[in-house]
Amino acid sequence: MTGGPALRLRGVRKNFGEHAALDGVSLDVQEGEVVVVIGPSGSGKSTLIRCVHQLDTIDAGAIYLDGELLGYEQHRGGLRALGARRVAAQRSRMSMVFQQFNLIPHFTVLRNITEAPVRVHGRPRAEAEAEGMELLERVGLADRAHHYPRQLSGGQQQRVAIARAVATKPRITLFDEPTSALDPELVDDVLAVMRGLAEEGMTMIVVTHEMAFAREVADRCVFMESGRIVESGPPAELFTTPSSPRLRSFLARHH
Ligand code: ADP
Ligand code: MG
What we know:
Elements: E1 7-16, E2 19-29, E3 34-38, H1 45-52, E4 60-65, E5 68-69, E6 72-75, E7 78-81, H2 84-91, E8 94-97, H3 109-119, H4 125-138, H5 154-167, E9 172-176, H6 184-199, E10 204-207, H7 211-217, E11 220-225, E12 228-233, H8 235-240, H9 245-253
Parallel strand pairs: 3-10, 3-11, 8-9, 9-10
Antiparallel strand pairs: 1-2, 1-4, 4-5, 6-7, 11-12
Helix pairs in contact: 3-4, 3-5, 4-5, 5-6
The protein binds adenosine-5'-diphosphate and magnesium ion.
């Protein structure tokens, strides 16, 4: 370990045409920290974590994972983009959980979980399967190991997606509105799995509108608007004494 933050963003900018989706975002995430990102639709929350996961390239600023610059290297006094293999290697140290689960439909539940550990990380299949079964046990779906995603409810699929995300032992796991596509009665089981991971010390960034989850689980909560971090702090402070009127009106709408 470097002793520095697990993840560091410095002045990150992302433009779509003339529009700045990220307008100079700086953020540190410490090892074991849970950072919850809130903010209105279009404020740049997804873009933020997509840039961290290198699904989008940034236009200015820098992102470091364990002190290592992501996506670029020093070259002749400047920076040049890393090749696809190096980017893939950096990406393999993080995981992302999407709103729409994104499980592979023609793989069983267990195979969905073991695929990255085996193919990307070179783990022996038997080991990956044993660990995959333990993970399924933890998310309450051991009996579904040999089912296919379509045979599961949305909430079950999302719990499989979370098991898949953590199967590679990522340095940080990024969640983009993981419960937004679920029927209300399925949300709590997914949040419970995430709470368990947080309690075990997993480093996470969670974009969510679940304010109760943010309040209980976040070490720090970040409020974004128009591509900027407007306010950030421990949830007890942010929710009880928001300093910006924007955050106050946002909280009034999302109690
Ligand atoms: P959020 O997740 O907070 O709702 P997003 O990060 O998805 O916000 O979007 C931030 C802004 O960037 C929005 O104005 C959105 O329309 C724009 N945007 C996001 N992705 C793209 C894209 N691929 N092409 C063009 N504009 C985009
Ligand atoms: Mg989004």
